[in-house]
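Sanity check

After download, print the first record. It should look like this:
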Amino acid sequence: MFMQKVMQQIRVNETAQYKKYFEQGQAMTDNELYDCLKDVKATIFSDKYSNLSNLATCGCSYYKNNGTLSGCSMCNLHSESIEQTAYMTCLRLKNQALYSKVVLRSFINARGIMANRTIHEFLYAYSFFDEMEIPDECLEKLLGREGIFKKKPFILEIETLAKHVNEHKINRLKEYLPRTKIWVRFGVECSNQILRNNWLNKSISDNDIRFAIEICHKNDVSVTANILFGIPGYAERFSIEEFVQTVSWLRDLQVDRCSCSILGRKENTLQGYLYNNLRNNPELMSLGIADGNHTGLPWIFSFLHALSLCETTMPDMMPRIVFGQFEPDYIQGVHTTAYNAIPQCKCVENFTKMTRSSKYEKIGQYYDMYTKSRFDPCYSSYEKMLNKQSSIQDPIHNMDAISIAISKTLWTDWMSYYNEYYTEIHG
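Expected structure tokens:
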């Protein structure tokens, strides 16, 4: 697929790093690898009632792609831990028992054994139901009688890929946590399957998502669907339309919660590539896709507009919408976050405060916020950008323009790669 090849090119340096560390790990014995990894710590994010523990694992199998790194085009969560990911993968392949012990120790090294009952625990792995990442032996070490919780939490949340949801793994969780409410979350991103797979390079079908929701509900497990506002390189109005359609689709599928993230910009992502290599591209500049320092990022005004449309057309969904990845400590130093005309504007601060609230206060709150935002000094800059983008006919025209520009910068024989894209999208 075109976008798979694009991401392999964007991540070619990451791949070289990964292969170097993987070869080093392969040359070590099981015990040598264990000694290198036994002191790793899970990364912890806590508030008053909940804890997110980002476990040390062998990482996302889809991203690693058998050693030629690619994965989802808008995501790059591994870039800070390539060495650890490579070593953990080697250990997983060599010795499952020692690997599972390191995963366990990553939690204990960070938090110890939880003697008291907590309210909400989120054990984060890239795909918690992936047997490669969290084998059954690892589940036993984490959640069994000698595991990390002496008293089980009221709520346990895990993240996985929709295609990995299965009754065996759900039943294992329920055996370990018979009185704990279980939430499963997975990435949906958007409702358009072609966009999800051929542009975001997600490799998750609509049927994968439907089946995952059905099997969770059948087993009294609640579902959080992760959805994205801001498609890399998309005109604002298309991102707005796709977001509203996605919320509507998930409403029809009776999802329990939508966790909304707004696109941030990071190195070795599609949006990062647009910024680094194409922000001065004349064609993309004329279309308003390349927009100076804003290239690759959506505007907060657009997200407020999308939320106000959801609120107007689907008020019953609003209490089910929560926000993710907005805490400064969570993203500081690795992402450039969405903003309006300037990052320091007051409207950005107000938006950040809104996303830290987990409770929907009143009907009309997003409509009111969007209406008021149109009087913000930044809004005139936003309108100028929208006027530029008005010449883009539709999302396909949008993707065509970007794909030509990307192909020309990545490959000398660019036309053959663009033709591959064209066949995928146009048929």
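If your output differs, re-run the checksum step. Summary of this record's structure: The first helix runs from residue 2 to 10.
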